[in-house]
Specification:
The chain has about 300 residues and is α/β, with parallel strands linked by helices. It contains 8 helices and 14 strands. Helix content is about 25%, strand content about 25%. About 45% of the residues are buried.
Length: about 300
């Protein structure tokens, strides 16, 4: 007997648990519950080709980045695949194992107040909303007004979610416990750091534009930065590689150049803390930015 859509969704959730080593059971329950096919809209769907999964591989210029699913069976989307939401911009509903791994690293807890920047169509927003439960809340910010409208419609069944169409780099609506920035920044902006509550966790993909690089398919590539608001120097470290759509308002040429230089010299692996105190640049400053410093000294 063929799997029902619900059975396929449960099998998909358990596969993501195994592939991404997800610790938070509530995230897996969210994956098993949230209907990805509904968020994506009617099929058939455009799926990113397998060789596009690694931004470090050269990409044949004449090769289409997508394949089309054989039909509109909703079970087609319950795999660890990227699916187009705006193929003209190669903007996708991201890979489940990557997104769940990043969200899991933030230790979501029931009752958490969450800021999700770069919400897209809202699929991962809904999974987060399930994890923090009815006592938690999620503010989802999306710069693209059309995507924000889609997200608002998709997320109507989740009363603990609020959608904001606007600039996630400047949006500030009070403190949050968990910040999931789902777009590439080349600097940390004050709105995120000022509103991260004590004990809060923040994940930011820090990416640099690498023009004319034949080994990188996307223009922005870097590493995820995980920060915890603890003590005077907040624990911070770069984790896995990431290639992701850029974050409006969190990029400028000088910051891009500084970040790219750090990546080229292998400095990302030296970061141990985020400093917000005023101090002169010294040998421990890996990235000495405006209002923040990523330091090699814990």
């Amino acid at each position: 007997m063929a799997l029902t859509v619900e059975d396929a969704r449960r099998a998909y959730a358990e596969e993501i648990r195994a592939v991404a080593e997800i610790r938070c059971d509530a995230l897996i329950e969210g994956l098993a519950k949230v209907p990805r096919d509904t968020f994506l809209g009617p099929g058939p769907w455009l799926v990113t080709r397998a060789h596009r999964g690694s931004p470090m591989l050269p990409q044949p210029p004449s090769d289409s980045p997508y394949r089309v699913t054989p039909d509109a069976d909703p079970r087609r989307v319950y795999h660890n695949i990227l699916i187009a939401i705006d193929p003209d911009r190669q903007l996708n509903n991201g890979q489940p194992s990557a997104n769940l791994s990043w969200i899991d690293s933030l230790d979501p807890k029931p009752g958490d107040r969450v800021l999700h920047v770069g919400a897209g169509i809202g699929y991962y927003t809904a999974v987060i909303a399930e994890a923090v439960g009815p006592t938690g809340s999620v503010i989802a910010v999306e710069h693209d007004p059309q995507l924000a409208a889609r997200a608002a419609a998709n997320l109507a069944p989740w009363p603990n979610v609020r959608i904001v169409a606007g600039d996630g780099s400047t949006f500030a609506d009070g403190p949050f416990d968990m910040g999931y920035i789902n777009c590439g920044a080349c600097k940390l902006v004050p709105a995120w750091l000022d509103n991260l509550a004590p004990g809060g966790r923040l994940l930011v993909p820090m990416t640099a534009e690498i023009p004319n690089n034949p080994l990188v398919s996307a223009s922005n590539f870097g590493f995820t930065l995980l920060v915890r608001h603890e003590g005077e120097r907040w624990p911070a470290r770069f984790t896995g590689g990431v290639s992701i759509y850029p974050c409006h308002g969190a990029r400028d040429d000088a910051s891009n150049a500084a970040l790219l230089d750090v990546f080229k010299k292998g400095g990302a692996g030296k970061v141990r803390a985020l400093r917000r105190d005023t101090h002169e640049r010294d040998d421990t400053c890996v990235i000495h930015g405006d209002g923040f410093c990523l330091s090699a000294s814990a």
